[in-house]
Design a protein that fits this description.
single chain; about 475 residues; 2-methylcitrate dehydratase PrpD; 60s Ribosomal Protein L30, Chain: A; 6 strands
Length: about 475
């Protein structure tokens, strides 16, 4: 077997970090924050149970009738760990409501799909799961801030593959050499393209992360079985650096002692993160309008938000949920019309609503250099409205609920979970929330997932 760790400095640093983290106990703060993240992620996942792509993903996971040791979230079905990561990953990402690293980092919460599957299959406890999540978030975030792969055309789901592989290597107790092979096997076959998030978006906006989680799990499984990856996946000839240019990882203890999981921003509203403050501004302006007709709307935002959710023509005439929930003008128009945010904004009926479409055309989104300088320490938005009578209204919102400087309370997170899951779980929503919130460090992950296994029909799909 080749000694991988002596050949690639980046690979060696990552593998060494994963190994070292196994022996660092979770602090109380890390346990409580991990519990908050898991509650939020499972709530977003369960809420998507009957969404059409999520149903299709579960059907694929059961196609060969393989069975296995990992649960399909919210059901009584079981499959292999890799396919469970795939199907559950679709659910976790589809409604776009879990945490994120803004500025191109994507969603570290997508790693939970693979970690849950492996922890359940191996009968591990919550403490093991949260330790692995700490590793996954740390690797994910370090690669994001160090490499900035979005600028090179590589999708943020690539970070999911690496984070998931690292976390699974921790759960599987791979040694240093096996861990290095797992990370190499995560890198080399799985460089994903950022075209998944440009123009008119497709189902693959969510699917990219689900597939990445599956690939991360499978990389760790291959390494555990003795398979070897290239010794220099980052720095070698035609390795990742050949595509991205050289980059150097941050020291893993950088961040003034704040765990990297706590640096991830959480969401109040289930849509792109950069529309969170515009939603808050639009809700306040709706109440001031008092039914008065709108002549024009100007939204001032920062450069990254403009690029991501307000630069393509498709954002002004979305034809599917995937494009609409990443369209700042569409979301702002809906909230100004109705006064609140909700899934109704992305329904087939609403996407065809002439009043909504007409107001969207009256919205301009402009990049403001001052707001750009303040991002991501703030997520600033300034919104100005002129009514048909000539009245001018404006609103500025700088921090969304869920930002590390404006965190969601435990109560607001639990309310979010219950609100999201009640349409799917009914009377079981509060009980499921309580089961997650009251979990203990030494509780088996399998028992936690079994507490939310319900006999839902796989054929009940929503098409909106």
């Amino acid at each position: 077997m080749h000694i991988v760790s002596t050949h690639d400095n980046t690979l060696h640093a990552l593998a060494s970090f994963v190994i070292a983290q196994r022996h660092v106990a979770l602090s109380d703060t890390e346990f409580f924050d991990g519990r908050r993240r898991l509650l939020d992620t499972l709530g977003c996942g369960l809420a998507a149970l009957h969404q059409r792509p999520c149903v299709q993903a579960r059907q694929l996971a059961l196609l060969d009738g393989v069975g296995g040791g990992a649960s399909l979230l919210g059901t009584q079905e079981r499959t292999s760990v890799a396919l469970a990561a795939f199907a559950n990953g679709w659910m976790i990402r589809y409604l776009d409501g879990a945490d994120t690293y803004p500025g191109g980092g994507g969603h570290p919460s997508d790693c939970w799909a693979g970690l849950l599957a492996v922890a359940e299959e191996r009968s591990l406890d919550i403490q093991n799961l949260l330790l692995a999540a700490r590793v996954a978030y740390s690797v994910f975030h370090n690669l994001f801030v160090s490499a900035q792969l979005r600028d090179k055309g590589i999708d943020n789901s690539f970070y999911v593959t690496l984070g998931t592989a690292a976390g699974c290597a921790c759960l599987m107790e791979l040694n240093h050499e096996q861990t290095a092979h797992a990370l190499s096997l995560a890198v080399v076959p799985n460089v994903s393209l950022a075209v998944a998030r440009t123009g008119a978006l497709s189902m693959w906006k969510a699917g990219a992360s689900a597939n990445a989680s599956r690939n991360g799990v499978f990389a760790a499984l291959m390494a555990a079985a003795g398979m070897e990856g290239p010794a220099m996946p980052f720095e070698g000839d035609r390795g990742l650096w050949h595509l991205t240019g050289a980059f150097e990882l941050e020291p893993f203890d950088q961040g003034n002692g704040v765990p990297r999981m706590q640096l991830a921003h959480m969401k109040q509203f289930l849509c792109d993160y950069h529309s969170q403050t515009p939603i808050a501004a639009a809700m306040q302006l709706h109440s001031q309008l008092q039914g008065e007709a709108i002549e024009s709307v100007v939204v001032h935002t920062y450069a990254f938000a403009h690029s991501e959710v307000a630069s393509d023509p498709e954002k002004w005439a979305p034809k599917n949920r995937e494009t609409a929930d990443h369209s700042m003008p569409w979301i702002v128009a809906g909230v100004l019309l109705h006064g609140h945010f909700g899934e109704y904004l992305f329904s087939t009926e609403q996407l065809q609503d002439p009043q909504h479409r007409a107001l969207t055309q009256k919205i301009r989104v402009l990049e403001d250099p001052d707001l750009t300088r303040r991002f991501p320490n703030e997520i600033p938005c300034h919104m100005a409205i002129e009514t048909t009578s000539g009245r001018r209204l404006q609103m500025q919102v700088d921090l969304p609920l869920g930002h590390p400087r404006h965190p969601m309370t435990d109560e607001s997170l639990q309310n979010k979970f219950v609100t999201l899951t009640t349409p799917v779980l009914g009377e079981h929503a509060q009980r499921t929330c309580d089961a997650i919130w009251q979990m203990t460090a030494h509780q088996c992950v399998r028992s936690l997932l079994q507490s939310m296994a319900f006999p839902h029909p796989l054929t009940k799909a929503q098409t909106s």
